[in-house]
Amino acid sequence: MPRNERTLEAVSAAQASTSRSTTNSKRKNVTRDDEDDSGSDSGSDVSMINVDFDFYNFNPDVDQIAIKRLLRQTLSHDDELIDVHPLADLILSEGNRLGAGSSIKTDGEESDPWGLVGVVDIRENMNNPAFSPFLKYLTSTLPSISPLRLLLDPPSTPAHASKTGLIFSLRMLNLPLPLIPHLYRMLLSELQPQGFTDFILWGRGYRLEGDEEGMGLDLNDQNSKKSKKKSGNAVVPLTAGTFTYHPEEEFIDNVATHVHTYPFKTAPKRDEDAFGVEQFGRLVLISNDKLSGAVEAMQAACQ
User: Where is this region: Disordered (predicted)?
Assistant: First the structure.
């Protein structure tokens, strides 16, 4: 489908300042400035980094390798259970067929994407050999009674008029959060003619016991920076609890119809002395209209 002219906000990853520009394609430069704030000490090691982020349509000739890598990252311990090559091809081809989905890049269209949001029509592809093994994998994680079961394994004769898409939100962990609402907004706008009633978001999460320190995870970013300013370079223990890897998914969880978590099938067993994050898979069911509201909440939180 043709791309409509759209206005995207240029959002700083560290500050709330914005500027606006209009483009006839998805491409939009977004500059990230990480600067010392006025209250920082003169000895601060924070430097300024300028990065231009561009939004692009999917490019099957360029994006496949990066999508396979991001799929394996999300599959975590179970990455050997799924052949990600045909799955990556399907995500790209569905993007072209539906006219929906975007990637974020920093070095032109021929560069690898840092992140992407795409969707696969579940009923349309349920018997597709590129997709059915992944559907069976997801269905095998569900309890016998689950609102997700009928949607992930729909009967050949539909009992109701719902149309469900499986959303793949794949990205590098350090991609600036203010970029993400734009990906979802564009996706929902492009999918509007397709009549999707519900979406299932696939992702992963992690658990922390609360005594882990310095694990290289850029979590609770703002609180950690503030704590370090107060206490020098002291390492702050990470907060105990269960979290999503992508913080924007918390906004989706808040209005979701159902959230299902499952342990990875091939994850090593943890004993009492195990240290570090415990990963798990996630499936989130949300209606089309509720997802739109969640994206608005994401956008407001980034301003």
Answer: 1-44
- Is-contact 53 29, C-beta < 8 A? yes
**Percent of the chain having pLDDT more than 70?**
70
Name 184's Cβ contacts closer than 8 Å, sequence gap at least 6. 117, 291, 295, 298
User: What is the pLDDT confidence band of residue 35, given thresholds at 50, 70 and 90?
Assistant: very low
Element (H, E) at 296: helix 288-301
Q: What is the CA radius of gyration of the chain?
A: 20
Query: For residue 52, what are the β-bridge partners?
Result: 31
Contact 162, 107 (CB under 8 A): no
CA angle, residues 161, 96, 199, in degrees to nearest 5: 35
Q: What is the pTM of this model?
A: 0.79
Contact 275, 212 (CB under 8 A): yes
- Among candidates 175, 30, 27, 187, which has minimal Cα distance to 95? 187
Of 213, 98, 125, nearest to 136 by C-alpha is 125
Residues 209-257 pLDDT 10s: 655 544 444 444 444 444 444 444 554 555 667 899 999 999 999 999 9
Could you say which DSSP state residue 7 is in?
Answer: E
> Among positive and negative, which fits the CA dihedral 271, 202, 132, 94?
negative
Give the pLDDT band of residue 275 (cuts 50, 70, 90): low
Q: Left, alpha or beta for 47 (phi > 0: left; psi -120 to 50: alpha)?
A: beta
What distance in Å separates the CA atoms of residue 87 and residue 96, rounded to the nearest whole number? 14
